[in-house]
Amino acid sequence: MIDSGDTAWVLASSALVLLMTPGLAFFYGGLVRQKSAVNTIMLSFITIGLISVQWVLWGFTLGFGPDLGGLGIVGGLEWLGLNGVGGEPGPYSATIPATAYMIFQAMFAIITPALITGAIVERMKFPAFLIFIVLWATLVYGPVAHWVWSFGADGKAAGWLGKLGALDFAGGTVVHINAGVAALAAALVLGRRRGYGREPMPAHNIPFVVLGASLLWFGWFGFNAGSALGANALATNAFVVTNTATAAAALTWTFVSWIHTKRPSVIGAASGAVAGLVAITPASGFVTPLASIAIGIGAGVFCYLAVQLRVKLRFDDALDVWAVHGIGGTWGALATGLFATVAVNALGDNGLFYGNPNQLGEQAIAVAATWVYSFVVTWLILKGIGLFTPLRVKEPEEERGLDVAEHGEPAYTS
After folding, report:
1. What are the angstrom distances between the C-alpha of 158 and each of 26, 65, 123, 150, 220?
2. Per-residue pLDDT at 28
3. What residues have CB less than 8 Å from 380, skipping those under 6 apart?
4. CB of 326 closer than 8 Å to CB of 184
5. Partners of 67 in the beta sheet?
6. Residue 312: its pLDDT value, please?
7. What is the pTM of this model?
8. What are the residue ranges in the chain where pLDDT is below 50?
């Protein structure tokens, strides 16, 4: 039977997750140079519109519809246009309407491609971006979501990674590794911004960065605790460990960067918080608060080191999507294989530290599969689009800034 409390919590969580995308727009918009701030914000905002429609028409059925051919790869078209998805409970929860689950997952589908935009800011043409987002959501996000999260009418896992036993409570593989690795591919295909490595490219508005990170932190409670699909003890645990890991990661990144650069960076603290949010996401429904501290500390260290590696390798992932989301998501997925315990979630499994080394292996397979699939298909999508329309703006437009070149609207008039 539908439970009004569970339904209310999932709808509220959906709204919280939606708020994360404008939060991301502020976070990314503050990090770029002034001349491309409006364009960067627009990339996140327009993604809300694009994917909201795509998800209703065909995205939801590809990700969560009845499995196509029993292969565990992608959903069939039975739920095209939300056909058969209504007010009754569906296979994903017995206490909320199927449409409530659909709209909750829509918010995940929106923010995931929006995350990729941090890698391609200040140089990608807007028409090419629109095509890319729709194709990526269809060909990459939908299938990976199906691999991990889909269920059949019998209540059993339908996706091949779900059948394998890989755990991802709220999107470590589906959202963060997926987007982070896609960002790496996009940065490599598009190439560096003009002047990269030769001229300074500072964040133009640090208060925007902190505001964006704060909105992400706030919205993430819906992201993780909402994934319990009910107002219950599991949601409470996810809420607690999300906040704890995020705090630990923010502190860790701050102190590591302070030691490294001799100054406590505000951007570093905000980036550390996001790294902690990313890392705890797959584990939030399976680990204890003490384990979440370890996960947060690891996120602060590993993601900071990944940023330093990116600098040395000189590829222009402008806003470090790969370092924060790709590496943070990878650590979080593997850490789930270390720290998961059935004492938190009886529907999960124990990890290595609770006597089950197989879980770590299953997590590693999920990580590897997502890395390979996301990178290869993203690369092919971008190369394919480039055959029909330019991916990058022209050099004079890039020099002038994408706010004026693409939109005719500067962020600031004085």
Report:
1. 37, 10, 40, 5, 27
2. 98
3. none
4. yes
5. 75
6. 96
7. 0.97
8. none
Cβ neighbour number for residue 186 with a 10 Å cutoff: 27
306 within 8 A of 322, measured Cβ to Cβ: yes
Give the pLDDT score at 153.
87
pLDDT at 296 (0 to 100): 98
How much is the pLDDT for 158? Answer: 97
User: How many helices and strands in the chain, by DSSP H and E?
Assistant: 17, 0
Long-range contacts of 400-404 (CB under 8 A, 24+ apart): 400/35, 401/33, 401/34, 401/35, 401/36, 401/39, 401/122, 402/35, 402/36, 402/38, 402/39, 402/40, 402/122, 402/123, 402/126, 403/35, 403/36, 403/37, 403/38, 403/39, 404/35
Cα–Cα separations (whole angstroms), residue 266 to 208, 239, 300, 389:
11, 25, 14, 39
Q: Rounded to whole angstroms, how far apart are CA atoms 334 and 325? A: 14
Give the pLDDT confidence score for residue 414 in this predicted structure.
74
Give burial (CB, 10 Å; 0-12/13-18/19+) of 261. Answer: exposed
Distance CA 401, CA 306 (A): 28
The residue among 324, 230, 334, 330 whose CA lies nearest residue 287 is 334
Q: Are 112 and 141 within 8 A, CB to CB?
A: yes
AA letter at 76: G
Which residues touch 239 (CB under 8 Å, ≥6 apart)? 221, 224, 225
Contact 40, 28 (CB under 8 A): yes
Sorted by sequence, the CB contacts under 8 Å of residue 267 that are 6+ apart come out as 31, 203, 206, 209
- Nearest 10 degrees: CA dihedral of 290, 291, 292, 296? 110
Provide the sign of the torsion angle of the four alpha carbons 268, 167, 244, 212, taken in this order.
positive
What residues contact residue 384 under an 8 Å CB cut-off, 6+ apart?
Answer: none
CA distance 384 to 131: 11
Could you give the CA distance from residue 414 to residue 412 in angstroms, rounded to a whole number? 6
Q: Go through the chain and tell me how many residues it has.
A: 414
DSSP symbol at 327: H
Please tell me the predicted confidence (pLDDT) of residue 44: 98
Rounded Cα distance between 120 and 117, Å, is 5
Domains of the chain: 4-407 (1.10.3430.10)
pLDDT of residue 127: 98
pLDDT of residue 155: 87
Say how far apart CA 76 and CA 118 lie, in whole Å: 32
